[in-house]
Amino acid sequence: MAYPAQLGFQDATSPIMEELLHFHDHALMIVLLISTLVTYIIATTAPTKLYNKFIMDSQQVETIWTILPAITLTFIALPSLRILYLMDEVNAPHLSIKAMGHQWYWSYEYSDYGALEFDSYMTPTADLSAGQFRLLEVDHRMVVPAESPVRILVSSEDVLHSWAVPALGVKMDAVPGRLNQTAFTVTRPGTFYGQCSEICGTNHSFMPIVVEATPLKHFEDWTSLMIQ
Length: 228
What we know:
Helix Hairpins, alpha+beta, 2 domains, 5-stranded mixed beta sheet
């Protein structure tokens, strides 16, 4: 869950998000080292009166400033490609959920449980209970079992939307006429908030996403209650 004046990412709640946080720290360290080196060079060379304005080229310097950036970019690209392919993998999910974007709400369909489907609208401010979050609460949450691989199929009934939950490291475009898929595993029980991340019209900012992860026993009880 995000909080005011937050400088970093939300706490990771899935293996993919943990990988993304590690990559962020890795890339940020490289950027910090480069910035420190450039600042040091500027600080030491700017005030000096020793210079040679007749140097037109230097094969050695050009070789160095070509090879070093290439090596640096390689150290950034390799971990990035690894995570990119990990995010595309969907291995033996225990549950499949279909999320459909509408103007301006989400609908969910649990195809593994027959007729279990429902719409999820934002809870109006006037209907919020104490402790609930404005513009983030919904009337029906998407409930998933914790510590179980979940596949989510994302599409749209009208315009472009995007199903995104930062704590899970998930952002998948909802395109009319196209079925996109991604997968995640929630590592702990809890409630995680997201929003539509593609501008989709007047009420784009009023179609939040709430994912509630529960132990498997509680999830089965919830599905039984919803099907009745």
